[in-house]
Design goal:
Elements (H helix, E strand, L loop, with lengths): L5 E6 L7 H14 L4 E6 L1 H4 L9 H14 L8 E4 L5 H10 L4 H6 L1 H9 L6 H4 L1 H10 L5 E3 L5 H18 L7 E3 L33 H9 L16 H13 L2 H12 L5 H27 L2 H30 L5
Parallel strand pairs: 1-2, 2-3, 4-5
Helix pairs in contact: 3-13, 4-8, 4-14, 8-9, 10-13, 11-13
This protein binds tryptophanyl-5'AMP.
Length: about 325
């Protein structure tokens, strides 16, 4: 039998998951778990680069686990684990750090963003964040990495580190690539028309999988619109195009088409469109929220999942690390 492709991805435990995390990542995890050998991980070590206060960490890890399961992730199919429970990650990170250069790390856009957001805590972990991410992926010699568009650059860096290792020490790592079932990687836009939905910026423009129905309605109804187009078939301004994009994600195709037609013949009423979008969002988010709430405090269940996941992940990691050490020449005795 042909060996199944290996899939790896991770999410930082820095708050509740939002619609971007779902459509960029988790939706693909759920589909991939039945087709590939999958390793999904809660990136608690990555969270330390921006959240040195660890008092909320346990709660946040539990939320991410519960929300993924509520979205359909099946821990019997995919290994689902916590990054810090697989110490081989940190070992590979150390080896890869010797192949990562200060200049390229300083140029990384996500690093520059973090320097802007936390100028008083520009730590070495922040600088080498993409190296740790490469270690997560290469540890399982994964080739498919389901992520949103914002992670494209990190994946390119992971490929560079893999290739550099292979050139210096011998072919151990296949090239990992960002993956989405559609043609392109997804970027779920924020409700204010500026940028993407994100855990750390503009909370009110981000829809969380934990938002109550009323809050979802409020957020959607506040989204920016205008008085509507005056010429048929005109181009949509960004903030309107974003509303359509969100609608395509959660509403029925004929509903989206009706509003598209209304836009094109200049009869669109954005109030009606937002009401429809709000109700479709509520219908999408409410069941996930309720399921996650029921799982989140079940410590025994979550612990079992993490232990099982870590055991599978460590077994895979140990095979890779034996090859890595042999290739580097760290096998004298
Ligand atoms: P994180 O925690 O920021 O996001 C988790 C996943 O959600 C996707 N995502 C989005 N997709 C579409 N539209 C959006 N608005 C949006 N916002 C977030 C992200 O692309 C990601 O797939 N560095 C990673 C975590 C990580 C990782 C890894 C990922 C650690 N190790 C190994 C893949 C492989 C991160 O901070 O994701």
């Amino acid at each position: 039998m042909e060996k199944q492709a290996i899939v790896m991805s991770g999410i930082r435990p820095t708050g509740f998951l939002h619609l971007g995390n779902y459509f960029g990542a988790v939706r693909n995890y759920v589909r991939m778990q039945s087709e590939y050998t999958c390793y999904f991980m809660v990136a608690d070590l990555h969270a330390l680069t921006t959240h040195p206060d660890t008092s909320e960490l346990k709660k946040n890890v539990s939320r991410v686990l519960a929300e993924n399961i509520a979205c359909g992730l099946n821990p019997d199919k995919a290994a689902f684990y916590c990054q810090s429970h697989v110490p081989e990650t940190s070992e590979l990170y150390l080896y890869l750090n010797m192949l990562a250069y200060k200049g390229e790390l300083e140029k990384t856009p996500t690093f520059k963003d973090k320097v802007r957001l936390q100028p008083d805590n520009v730590n070495a972990g922040l600088l080498t964040y993409p190296v740790l991410q490469a270690a997560d992926i290469l540890l399982h010699r994964a080739t498919l990495v389901p992520v949103g568009k914002d992670q494209e650059q990190h994946l390119e860096m992971s490929r560079n580190f893999a290739n550099r290792f292979n050139h210096r020490y011998g072919e151990i790592f296949p090239e990992p690539h960002a993956f989405n079932y559609g043609d392109e990687l997804i970027k779920v836009p924020s409700l204010d028309g500026a940028g993407k939905m994100s855990k750390s910026e503009n909370q009110y423009a981000t829809l969380y999988l934990s938002d109550e129905d009323e809050l979802i309605r409020k957020k959607v109804m506040k989204a920016k619109t205008d008085s509507g187009p005056t010429t048929p078939n005109s181009e949509k301004p960004d903030y309107i195009a974003n509303l359509f994009l969100l609608m395509e994600l959660v509403s029925a195709p004929d509903v989206t088409k009706k509003f598209e037609d209304d836009f094109n013949n200049c009869t669109i009423r954005y109030g009606d469109m937002k009401k429809q979008l709000a109700e479709d969002m509520v219908a999408f988010i409410a069941p996930v929220r309720e399921k996650a709430e029921a799982i989140r405090n079940d410590e025994k269940y979550l612990k079992e999942i993490m232990e099982k996941g870590a055991a599978k992940a460590r077994a895979s990691a140990q095979v890779t690390m034996a090859l890595v050490k042999e290739a580097i020449g760290l096998n004298y005795y």
